[in-house]
Design brief:
single chain, alpha+beta, Cathepsin B, Chain A, seven-stranded antiparallel β-sheet, 6 helices, about 30% strand, globular
Amino acid sequence: EVSTEDPETAFCTLANREDLNLEEGSIYHCLYQFTRNEKLTETNKLLCDVCTQRHYGPKNNIKSEKKYVYTNAKKQMLISLAPPILTLHLKRFQQAGFNLRKVNRHIKFPEVIDLAPFCTAKCKNVAEGNTKVLYSLYGVVEHSGTMRSGHYTAYAKMRSMNNHLSDLVLRGLSPQALETEPVKGQWFHISDTRVQAVSTSKVLSSQAYLLFYERLL
């Protein structure tokens, strides 16, 4: 969605991004980098229809003469609609010469994550006055091995029904009540046909490849 709002508010978020604990190697640091403000200059300048019309006149003349005006701009990707289910896919490979190499570094992720610092100030399905958009972790996919071979396993939480999620999915209602604690339940590690109960600390120490969160607030 391209924003044409007042430049003073176009890059505002629901919560102050500068208050985040941006520990390197954390999921918050990854999200911050992914949604950072970028400057488009030189060969990355933006084609500006308004500037072009102001300089060359009506559009029909522009197309025939193929003249355009490019301008410096700022770009930032923010969330405009908070999803019921948040899926985070970590890029676990990097280019090493002509080869791809797996990244085995542990990325810290919390049980409850606040998406507000990465949402636009006018996020569509967030109740007015809310400065938090909270999600509770319920699933993790982990990969062991190399880029050529390996094994996928999963952690899943058996939990009670999340009424806020039901309202959001079935009725389109934004959560109103303040819920800041993770959904209660028991974690299980699933590897092929083997299923074993595990602690929360075991889950949070895993080498996450995919993270699944459900909306709380």
